[in-house]
Amino acid sequence: MDRNEAREKARELVAKMTLEEKASQLRYDAPAIERLGIPAYNWWNEALHGVARAGTATVFPQAIGLAAIFDEDIIGDIAEIISTEARAKYNSQSAHGDRDIYKGLTFWSPNVNIFRDPRWGRGQETYGEDPYLTSRMGVGFVKGLQGQGKYMKTAACAKHFAVHSGPEILRHEFDAVVSQYDLWDTYLPAFEACVKEAGVEAVMGAYNRTNGEPCCGHSVLMKDILRGQWGFEGHFVSDCWAISDFHQYHKITDTAPESAALAIKNGCDINCGNTYIHLLEALEEGLISEDSITEACVRAFTCRYLLGMFADDNEYDKIPYAVNDCDRHDRAALKAAERSMVLLKNDGVLPLNLSALRSVAVIGPNADSIPALEGNYNGRSSRYVTYLEGIRAACREANVRVNYSEGSHLYKKSTSGLAREEDRLAEAVQAAEMSDAVILVLGLDPSIEGEQGDASNEYSSGDKKDLELPECQRKLLDAVLAAGKPVITVIASGSALRVEEGNAIIQAWYAGQAGGTAAANIIFGKTCPSGRLPVTFYKSADDLPDFTDYSMRGRTYRYFKGEALYPFGYGLSYTNFTYSDAVYDTDKSAISVKIKNTGLRDAEEVAEVYVKPLEFSSHGINCSLCAFGRVALASGEEKRVLLPIPPRAFECVTDDGRRIKAGRHFRFFVGGSQPDNVSVNLLAKAPLELDVVI
Questions:
Q1: Which residues are known to be catalytic?
Q2: Which of 535, 564, 599 finishes a domain?
Q3: What is the pLDDT of residues 663-691, one digit of tens each?
Q4: Are 122 and 616 in contact (CB under 8 A)?
Q5: CATH number of the domain enclosing 287
């Protein structure tokens, strides 16, 4: 069903409603209108990396881990699986009369905010720090969720529009002041791509203000840009209770009716919260017209018609519950986890040879932790494999003993309330001493890193104060290293931490239900690591501007002038790849390059292309990712890979936010990393350079 047909049906249905009925449908928990055959509908659902908060579902790696895969098609395939499980659950739940929260087909995902600062707890929900990578991942995810059938399979929602990335503790009152350059160069491109390329059905506003206006009632963002310049035709939803922030914290309005009026006049259709119960008061006070309520209601029901909710020929209604949490989806979760993990360091200890081992120590507070697999906004899997379980399964087949110790609490000084400090430290050292190698699983989990209200730590509302491991884990790490055995450090987290210790380091993110199996496969050489960092790992938070400073100056690989610990786009492999014969194909607007696997292992490589205009140095930008592609190569195999270059690679943004041609001369860097000195030193090779005149 095309949008025009759906909108016409929506207009006809809404015309039959009373004013009170129309207003009631703009709440996220819209009641039934039985006389018109309209069932109750709850708009609030989540699908960040699997169907969330509604019982059993396949749990994929957290969004930041999915970004580390650097593959738009894989992200699309994962989103398609999520939408299949979503329909399966919706069909079953609706048939049993369950239309509660988290049971609908409107999913408030993906989060395409820019992870500009590693201290932000919600950064794990994003696709990282780069606007181009975020755009491609966002487009792939939206297309996968919404499908290509007659009806939308599910409705995606790009959030949080716009300029939103912490601090969490200030989000209800904060004004994110940003230049027009940064707005259009960094903060808006992913939203624009989701709207224009992917046809995203919904956009959600942010809690904060941007340049003085609250984002859920922002005339410039919502009217001028989103619906005006970009032609967005879907519906807009507020973040939860964000409209009440207008008068309670932002002090932009004085009363709830005024806040409701400001939001709906600027195009906010669905209110997550309860401020829209004051819409009729706003109408009585002359703050809005009935037309505003009618138009919002039409947009809401246009979405419901697009989803085929009132149709009798919807193919998605036939999807059975049995496809949820199935074997095929579990295999996809495993492949995603394997591809998402990033090998940051390896002095040659990896992969471990099981046949040469008698015993392995598995130590750490995240070693046997399910929360360390899940990330936030998660479902519940029936198939979790913790790191301990995955390693034990691999070792059992080879008759290798596993010696386990929790080692420390995640962040407290002891694991038991009655015990002295460091109550598991001696046990951890003993486990290390009696083993041939140590796998130390450290990091964070969503209980201390995440969204305000969901996460809690001593630093404030789920954000981090620095980039260090909690003190108890640092003590554990030092004690285990002192045992003198080879140490593989596995970090489960949704953000960058400064970890340099260990013979090898794997950044595992929150790896989803199959995280333990994936890590074991990489550690013991069954799978070659291929993930890439979607964010910069800095040496210290002291290297960054103030958290509340939304200027991009000094942030992310594009503008950072210091030396990173591990750069954006970086990741090691167990094999070697060489690049040669890079050429720019003018007709196809693509770079063609030969890539050869010169090592002894079959593996996947992520080819990356960065661009730097030679005539314009826009705000001191270092270089920008403009293309990437994942390619599988057997040992000794060579392939020529075509990497399309988007038109925006040849453009730059002016101080007033206009996008213009960036001259005619450009330098491209083609290889397995960006061209910075740290990447070149860590990988012992530099990308190819290619100068192009257009």
A1: 239, 449
A2: 535
A3: 999 999 999 999 999 999 999 999 999 99
A4: no
A5: 3.20.20.300
